[in-house]
Design a protein that fits this description.
The protein contains 31 helices and no strands. It is an all-alpha fold and about 575 residues long. Helix 4 runs antiparallel to helix 5 and helix 5 packs antiparallel against helix 6. The protein starts with 12 loop residues before the first helix and ends in a 6-residue tail after the last helix.
């Protein structure tokens, strides 16, 4: 870095000499990116020689470099830099930095003032500064000045796609249709009616509300570059806005099925297509067919299969999603999150052996992944292998570096559930306590702890306090609403219990990913019965028994059409 000569003052020569020495040392630290040392040294130099504009400038710059300064400190720093600009307007390096800093902190008028001054004496850097000025002018609403600045750049550097696109954007913002069309025609002529010019004109015509002319321009562009899928996508969007479903599908398929279209472009187009189809709830399109056709063209591209798996998961086709993720991992096993997703998909299908097999494969690539061990523990729990699940979770705990984390809380909460299934309530409560030590606000741990207390004759006051905290975090969670309803039921507060169990039922029905469980339905039946609605209660018990035919207590309630205490 070349630094300007230091000015002299009437201050004591020894103090000035020391200030100059410290200043040069500060400059050395700045050159080596040691911002902290630079800040300390330059402020020391400024204390020794506060009248030196150069040192004051860098003291201000040091304040801004450190970041997170309060507004008054930023204003003071900028004033020091501006004082240097006023005294040394010929210094390009420092003043250009000052201009950029002004733009970064929102002092656009000062940025414009400095750049306009610098342009006059620095013709070699004029184009760069005019490009910055154009953005600054536009930010202040001075669109005509922005266009003029870009035109000056064109005089020295020639036309460019970026400049032409920016100029047209500013003209559109000014609603100057004539200027827009003239500029577009100028670009077409200069580029020999080429690809960029026709794409640009297609966009211009769309912005001007002339889709027919836009289609003509896009067709010209496609004739030049048939494999440009984004042009097909642009045409597809026009047809979609016109309600022309056939042509919309045709253009999407052309982009996706064109062997010359780049695979990354295809993934981007397919992502937008799927998203828009789902957003519009459009049943006329066949996403499965399109995805499978693209996969046939690119069978070894994991990105396409991952995207298709995302869609299949969204529509609850977990088996299909797992198949696609499995293929994707065969091609690229380097993403630990994909392994975890695949394991959860097998859990959703109750294919627990596949979960464990996949987990073992994943551990060969990621042997230190706590999450993989924990998902295996979940599968073992769901398969009724509670002791093995506890062993697996114990390993998962050893893989977590953070000794107080949400991950630890999640594992301890899961271990509590396993101990409960084994009838070891004291150990379950210890695990819940450990979970809440790590994460006192963990709403899953709070709810599960409350439910365990309520179903095993525990402290109902404590349980109620916990579930209320959980509901404060997720007031529409059906499980938490069910827990609170059940606590109220145990207190014999049957009317409010009915209010909350019905909220739980409604929440579960509205959440597409949730199903009415036998436990929720049984609770609903019990609460209905105590509220004098035995017929509705019987209907709920019957539905619960269909889901859990092994429950002897449910069968007694259905057979005798009455409530039985456990």
């Amino acid at each position: 870095m070349v630094l300007p000569m230091l000015s002299t003052t009437k201050a004591d020569e020894e103090r000035i000499r020391k200030a100059n020495y410290v200043y040069l040392e500060a400059a050395s630290r700045l050159a080596s990116d040691d911002v902290s040392a630079f800040y300390d040294l330059i402020n020391r130099a400024c204390q020794l020689d506060p009248d030196n504009a150069t040192i004051a400038y860098y003291a201000g710059y040091a304040t801004l470099l450190r970041g997170h300064a309060p507004k008054d400190s930023i204003d003071m720093a900028l004033s020091k830099m501006d004082a240097f600009f006023q005294e040394h307007p010929e210094c390009f390096y420092e003043n250009f930095i000052y201009a950029r800093v002004c733009g970064q902190v929102g002092h656009t008028d000062d940025m414009i003032r400095v750049l306009e001054t610098l342009i006059e004496g620095n013709p070699n850097h004029a184009s760069m500064m005019r490009m910055m000025l154009a953005d600054a002018y536009a930010g202040k609403g001075r669109l005509k000045d922005a266009i003029d600045a870009l035109s000056e750049v064109e005089k020295t550097d020639g036309m460019s796609n970026d400049i032409s696109a920016k100029k047209i954007g500013y003209m559109l913002a000014m609603n100057d249709t004539t200027a827009v069309l003239n500029e577009g025609q100028r670009v077409l002529e200069k580029t020999g009616n080429g690809l960029f010019g026709n794409i640009l004109m297609g966009e211009v015509y769309m912005r001007l509300g002339n889709p027919d002319s836009a289609l003509v321009s896009y067709d010209k562009a496609l004739a030049i570059e048939p494999g440009n899928g984004y042009i097909n996508l642009a045409k597809a969007n026009i047809y979609r806005e016109q309600g022309d479903a056939d042509n919309y599908e045709r253009e999407i398929r052309r982009a996706l099925l064109n062997k010359d279209t780049d695979i990354d472009m295809k993934v981007d187009i397919l992502t937008r297509y799927i998203g828009k189809t789902l957003q519009d709830n459009d049943s006329t399109t066949n996403i499965d067919q399109i995805c499978n056709t693209v996969i046939e063209l690119h069978p070894h591209e994991p990105a396409v299969r991952r995207l298709y798996a995302d869609y299949l998961t969204f529509v609850h086709n977990y088996e299909g999603a797992a198949e696609q993720l499995s293929f994707a991992l065969d091609g690229d096993p380097s993403d630990v999150k994909l392994w975890q997703r695949l394991m959860w998909l097998y859990n959703y299908q109750k294919a627990y052996d596949k979960t464990l097999e996949t987990g073992d494969r994943a551990l060969t690539y990621f042997p230190e992944s706590s999450d993989i061990y924990h998902i295996k523990a979940n599968a073992m729990n769901l398969a009724g292998r509670f002791s093995e699940a506890l062993e697996m979770d114990s390993i998962a705990l050893t893989k977590i570096n953070d000794q107080s984390s949400a991950s630890r809380a999640n594992i301890f909460t899961h271990m509590a559930a396993c101990y409960e299934q084994l009838g070891q309530l004291d150990e379950a409560y210890k695990c819940f306590d450990r979970a809440l030590e790590d994460a006192p606000d963990d709403i899953l741990a709070l709810n599960n702890y409350a439910y365990t207390l309520s179903t095993h004759g525990g402290d109902l006051d404590r349980a109620e306090s916990m579930v209320k905290m959980a509901l404060a975090g997720e007031p529409e969670n059906s499980s938490y609403l069910d827990t609170y309803a059940w606590i109220l039921f145990l207190r014999h507060d049957y009317k409010p219990a009915l209010e909350y169990i019905e909220k739980a039922i409604n929440a579960a029905e509205e959440a597409e990913e949730e199903e009415l469980t036998d436990e929720l339905l049984e609770h609903y039946g019990d609460i209905l019965f105590m509220n004098g609605q035995p017929e509705k209660a019987l209907d709920c018990w019957r539905k619960a028994l269909e889901l859990n035919p092994q429950s002897e207590l449910l069968r007694k309630k259905v057979d005798h059409k009455t409530y039985f205490y456990e």
